[in-house]
# Entry
Amino acid sequence: MPKDIRHLVKDIEDIVIQGKANAAANIQFSLQYRSPYWTGTFNAAWKVQKGRPVDPVKPRKENKGYRSGIRAPERGPIIKTSLSEALYVGNETEYAGFVINRMRSLETAGLTSDQIFGNNSQGNPRGVAPIEFYEDLFAINADTSPIPNSPEWYYYYIATEELTKDIDQGFTAQGLKYVPG
# Structure
């Protein structure tokens, strides 16, 4: 039996709210999957939060000189808001700006790759290149792991169809599909 048209606005609102929540969860999952991992701190720190941006305050786990984390993305909870309340997807680690090449590393500023990574017996590069930004790791052929394996991995995700796909999937799951006209 068809529903009364009086419920149309509320039904559409519910669909859009659920689509927004699904899209945010998809984005979080994709960023976990694509982001670099070493100890697993950064990779697992992507979060969906309502009302305000995610604060980057979580410290890094102890680095043992080798990759100890695993790329194991997990779907976060679906967080619903109102139509007017913002949902934010961000990374809680205090060095998140470093990993997307937007801030200098406070840990490594002025240090050399030799001081940071140790010697070749650990399978790490040696050299005197200063490590200030994440992209500096690529210049010395360090063991990096984002998808794609580029210092611009984050910008690739947000500037290509990859982000749009995650948003589309969130709304398509609710039965909405954008058809360009």
